[in-house]
Amino acid sequence: MTHDNSLADTDACALARHAADGLARTPKQLSSSWLYDAEGSRLFQQIMDLPEYYLTRVEHSILRDQAQAISACIAPGVAAVDLIELGSGDGAKTLTLLQKLMQRSAPVVYHPFDISAHAIAELSQRFASELPQLQLTPTIGDYFTHWPTPSDVNRQVAMFLGSNLGNFRQLEAVSFLQRIRSFLRPHDGLLLGVDLQKDPSIILAAYDDSQHITAAFNVNLLRRLNREIGTDFVLDQFHHYACYSPLDGAARSFLVSRTAQTVRCAQLGLSVDFAAGECIYVEQSQKYTVPMIDELATAGGFQREQIFFDAERWYAVVYLAAR
Ligand SMILES: C[S@@+](CC[C@H](N)C(=O)[O-])C[C@H]1O[C@@H](n2cnc3c(N)ncnc32)[C@H](O)[C@@H]1O
Questions:
Q1: pLDDT tens digits for 30-39?
Q2: How many A from CA of 37 to the centre of ligand 1?
Q3: b/e per residue 134-157 (b: at least 16 CB within 10 A)
Q4: Is 151:188 a contact under the CB 8 Å cutoff?
Q5: How far is the CA of 91 from the centre of ligand 1 (A)?
Q6: pLDDT tens by residue, 277-295
Q7: CA-nearest residue, atom 6 of ligand 1
Q8: Once rounded to an integer, what is the mean pLDDT over residues 42-64?
């Protein structure tokens, strides 16, 4: 396993800069990228198993049931393929696809990377035991700055699963796709997992589960700030709030201050006042329609080549060809 050097001034410095900037804004905000410390990654694994969190289950079913057709998009011929997965997490869903992909004649090198060391350790262990014959180069890296060094000659296919693109606002999503496109050559591709617009109550339940695991996942961000940069958030003075707006197709999560209070960070000389009921905006999860996906793909420098749905059309895995 290698480590991206851009993370060398990690995490504490970058997190401190991020928190000082985000908590000074109106409305206050913190990026969901910071949710995945070891405890956050552990809680996210629990979320993926929740009955309400349909996303993982449905995406996994598409990758499993349509693995043959998806593999044909990734490796259409005999040319070797570098499969580059951004924000791979523990790689559980990708393993299913790779088992099928490896039956094709094209050799595959899998380059997963994730900002979470915990996720990469889990992935490395899983693949070592379940697919030991695969050529694998896991990296700890930030997908805003890192790109693995693949072979000059192999076809490259990037993967961005788990509805991760939905965490970006429209313009950020376009520039993220353009960034991916900038590393690809014509005829390379991107396999993208996107959540679709559906009954709002199904979507809302996914971000506000009855066992309150999502709440614990979000509040853990404050625990992380206390531990890594020395803030003094009192955790039970904040609660998780999620909403979904069918008007713009976005689910949003917030941490809400239960009382008027001041949070301090001596190390940073920071003092942040909260009014009772004031929110920290933590995460957006955009839900798409097929025309929205096409518009994003075109703006990002791609063209939709294939789209794979589950039986209920709740979710789509899209193969985009680099234009
Ligand atoms: C919603 S999970 C999805 C994981 C996996 N792709 C899946 O579909 O199961 C998001 C993953 O992205 C990772 N992540 C978040 N921000 C990141 C960043 N800036 N760079 C790299 N990975 C990041 C998290 O650590 C987490 O593993």
A1: 999 899 999 9
A2: 11
A3: bebbbbbbbbeebbbebeeebbbb
A4: no
A5: 10
A6: 999 999 999 999 999 999 9
A7: 88
A8: 97
Map residue 238 onto helix, strand or coil. Answer: strand
- Pocket of ligand 1 contains residue 127 by CB under 6 Å: no
119 ligand 1 Cβ < 6 A:
yes
* Amino acid 2: pLDDT: 41
Q: What percent of the chain has pLDDT over 90?
A: 92
- Return the domain boundaries, the chain: 2-51+202-286, 54-198+288-322
Distance (angstroms) between ligand 1 centre and the Cα of 218 equals 15
Ligand 1 pocket check for 142: Cβ under 6 Å:
yes
Which tens digits make up the pLDDT trace of 302-312? Answer: 999 999 999 99
The rounded distance, in Å, linking the Cα atoms of 190 and 177 is: 9
What distance in angstroms lies between residue 6's CA and the mean position of ligand 1's atoms?
17
- H-state helical runs in 49-154: 54-65, 67-74, 92-101, 117-130
Question: Rounded CA gap, 155 and 189, in Å?
Answer: 9
| pLDDT given for residue 10 in this prediction | 59
Q: Tens of pLDDT along 243-260?
A: 999 999 999 999 999 999
What's phi and psi for 81, nearest 5 deg?
Answer: -125, 130
Rounded Cα distance between 287 and 246, Å, is 9
Superfamily assignment of 54-198+288-322 in CATH?
Vaccinia Virus protein VP39 (3.40.50.150)
84: Cα separation from own chain's centroid = 14
Q: What's the gap in Å between 88 CA and the centre of ligand 1?
A: 6
Protein residue whose Cα sits closest to atom 4 of ligand 1? 89
The number of the ligand 1 atom at minimal distance from the alpha carbon of 92 is 9
| Cβ(148) – ligand 1 distance below 6 Å | no
The predicted pLDDT at position 11 comes to 72
Report pTM.
Answer: 0.93
